[in-house]
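G., the chain you wanted modeled:
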Amino acid sequence: MVTKEDIEHIAKLMRIDVVNSDEYFERLNKILGYFDILDKADIDGEDIPVQQVAIEDLREDKYIEFSDNLIEQLKNYKGSYIRAPKMN
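Predicted structure as tokens:
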């Protein structure tokens, strides 16, 4: 089981400001509850269909050369660099 202290510790390691750890605690417990349900599902007797495709039936890979200079097609290309959005 996950404790509120675990969430606060992980948030601190990831350098994430967690204002209300109770909210995350409840969400995480719901997620873990779903995993418990999946773990209890009895699928040993189930037939799981797997679609097998022969390698001859796959499409042939084709190389198509791109004639334009792709980097010059970018919106934020200036000189020898690409401008990225600002990080907060």
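The two ends are 34 Å apart (CA to CA).

Shout if anything looks off.
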